[in-house]
Specification:
Oligomer: single chain
Distance between the termini: 25 Å
Number of helices: 9
CATH topology of the largest domain: Rossmann fold
Radius of gyration: 24 Å
Helix content: 10-25%
CATH architecture of the largest domain: 3-Layer(aba) Sandwich
CATH class of the largest domain: Alpha Beta
Number of domains: 2
Shape: elongated
Strand content: 25-35%
Length: about 425
């Protein structure tokens, strides 16, 4: 993703604009939060405006006057619909808006739209955060029909906020909207430790696979070693490509383990069951290499079919069986093994020979099944059956709270299991801080 404010766009005759560069979609954020929004438009993560002196950013006088006036303007006709903040699996509230502009209003040679807005906590109106976005508009015919659809996103912590927003075109026509919004956890989720504190306003993180900051680990007596096998695959098995909302929850699962101070060493195996291929491997390290995982996922080509594999009956199940056998019979076993991924719907179960060769391990086995719509596919999949054979435990991850509770419980069970195997008293350690 480009990190500057200049976003290139191209035209879809039936929907207006979509991004020429890959951006996260607002639909993807809502899908990752367990919600659904059918939208093909592109959501633009806004850039925070900063001052070199640390004070308020420099803003064109006319723009500041519009924001200060607080009056709705439609010199440039547009319709703005605020989107209620939605909690994502990354435990950040993603707020935003959708904009509709008649195509005829943008007709002419190549130009640009400039968006400037500010977000302030309701209880601190004099402490706003300013955002901006510059969107390149392609050549549009004078008789163009239909509408252009734009979207924007930004992140907030719990609280109430006021948003002052404007967009202007090359002729200085302005569209201005003003609204209030609130991000709030339901009572049953109040224990969740959110990534942003109350009243905090931030740009949406543009990169899923950015590195994690160091974590202060616990004492050596509490250290556990966890291996995670992640099936990076789309929710829809017939999809031709991985989308951000397919990977958001899976990457966040890894991040939650990385942030857990009781885990001292990580082994990660990223694979794609449809391609029957291990994409990335990292053995017993102190830090998960997220950028490397992101690069590995760039090699996934779900639209391509290996003809030789098509001729092999039950090849996916055999690949999974071989993977399980290899990863669970290593010379130095982990303190626990965790599978993660969407439903592994293959034509047959994992070969019984592979499971019997492994046997029931001395360490616990878990399955974090990322399934946005569990009511649609309530039956067990190939990994579920394997985990059941190993007397493991399965967690369905459909909402952010499912992920938080699952990681917290899994780590506590791992620590207790290790203590029991060592013959020591049950651990009295407090659960780690999972953000």
């Amino acid at each position: 993703m480009r990190k500057d404010m200049d976003s290139s766009m191209r035209m879809r005759p039936w929907r207006g604009f979509s991004g020429a560069t890959e951006f996260r979609t607002w639909a993807g954020y809502l899908a990752a939060a367990g919600l659904v929004l059918a939208a093909s438009s592109v959501a633009y993560a806004q850039t925070v405006m900063r001052s070199s002196t640390g004070g308020p950013p420099s803003i064109i006088g006319s723009d500041l006057a519009v924001l200060e006036a607080g009056d709705q303007r439609k010199d440039l006709p547009c319709t703005l619909t605020p989107a209620k903040p939605a909690l994502g699996f990354d435990l950040r509230f993603h707020a935003g808006y959708e904009i509709t502009v008649p195509m005829r209003e943008l007709a002419g040679g190549e130009s640009a739209l400039t968006i400037v807005f500010r977000v302030a906590p309701a209880d601190r109106p004099n402490s706003p955060v300013y955002f901006s976005q510059r969107i390149r508009v392609p050549l549009i015919e004078e008789d163009a029909k239909g509408d252009a659809f734009l979207q924007g996103v930004f992140d907030v912590g719990e609280g109430k906020y006021k948003v002052d927003w404007l967009m202007r075109d090359r002729t200085e026509r302005v569209c201005a909207h003003f609204w209030e919004t609130e991000a709030a956890l339901p009572a049953r989720d109040k224990e969740l430790a959110l990534a942003l504190g109350p009243g905090v306003i931030a740009a949406t993180e543009p990169e899923q696979f950015s590195d994690e900051p160091p974590v202060q680990r616990g004492g050596a007596d509490a250290a556990v070693n966890v291996k995670v096998l992640v099936n990076f695959a789309p929710q829809n098995k017939n999809a031709a490509a991985l989308q951000p909302y397919d990977t958001t929850a899976l990457v966040t699962i890894l991040r939650q383990f990385q942030r857990e101070p009781r885990i001292h060493r990580f082994s990660v195996v990223a694979f794609n069951l449809q391609e029957e291929r291990v994409l990335f491997r990292q053995d017993s390290t102190e830090h998960i290499n997220f950028p490397a995982i992101g690069k590995a996922l760039d090699t996934v080509q779900l639209g391509r079919v290996d003809f030789a594999k098509l001729q092999q009956k039950n090849s996916e199940a055999e690949f999974l069986g071989k993977l399980i056998q290899d990863e669970m019979t290593v010379a130095e076993p982990p303190d626990a093994l965790v599978f993660a991924g969407p439903k592994a719907l293959v034509d047959s179960a994992v070969p019984a020979e592979s499971l019997k060769t492994v046997g029931v391990p001395d360490f616990p086995v878990f399955y974090m099944n990322y399934n946005l719509f569990p009511q649609v596919t309530p039956w067990r999949d190939a990994i579920s059956h394997a985990v059941r054979f190993f007397k493991g435990q399965e967690y369905t991850i459909s909402r952010p709270r499912d992920l938080w509770h699952a990681v917290t419980e899994i780590v506590s069970k791992i620590v207790k299991s290790k203590s029991d195997r060592a013959g020591g008293p049950p651990s009295a350690l407090q659960p780690g801080s999972v953000r």
